[in-house]
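Attaching the record inline, Q. Sequence:
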Amino acid sequence: MAQSFNDMTRRLKEAMEVVRHYNRTLQSKVEEKTAELRQAQEHMLRIDRMATVGRLAAVIAHEINNPLSGIRTYAKLLQKRATKEPGVGEEERRYLELIESEATRCGEIVNSLLQFSRQSPIKLEPQDISGLTAEALRLVRHRLDLQSVTVCTHLQERLPRVHCSGQQVIQALLAVFINACEAMPSEGTLTVSTGSEEGEKSVWVRVEDTGVGMDNETMEHIFEPFFSTKEEVHGVGLGLAVVYSIVQRHGGRIDVESTVGKGSAFTLHFPVLPPQAGTSQKEVPV
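Structure, as predicted:
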């Protein structure tokens, strides 16, 4: 009788331990799925906000572009006249130059708005991600040299080719490189690496800087249109928003790590296969 009772107690304890294990596993799964759902919801909200802002930006840019063109044209005409008129002083010429240069800067901002809002098809073709990365670095090399930024590259060869728009990927990488430059106004190290995920279903480009870094609150907003922490830098805060849009169009994702005072790291992931089956070398509407 005592032995039977002991056996029953032991089995009950074992059953209780199994139940507790299942509870812990279930709780862990629930937390994991909740985090995934929250991340998916934030992703969809960000896409919706970007689409809304993009439509608004297109309307504003169109309405502003025409009068800006007129201002620039007449400023240039007055500058030409001023060179022929003996009564026009140096100060007036500087004012005209300022009008023309500021109108040009506004035009560049308008073009950025139009570029951000443009919903044109992209042509997907097999591309070498390391080659695209090297090309983007070449385009920004002059700025890196001017700021005395040391560049370290680890670009893997013979990675799986990615079905993507080469020009758009270069555009995205340029924006990330420029963002890193702005985080390192005087000297620093830029480390650029490429590689592939396990199973070679996707490839990645990692861009690390030794700049000022970001806090958690800033990181939550960096991909929002018109968000910027750089008060002294000309622009409208569309650089990283465009990066996010390009990567999202290609069915990829961006991982961001940052520590205040130490620097930031952006990792752009691109799937090897196109976002939609059978879209290789075809235009994909976005």
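The mean pLDDT is 81. The chain is about 55% helix and 15% strand.

More tomorrow.
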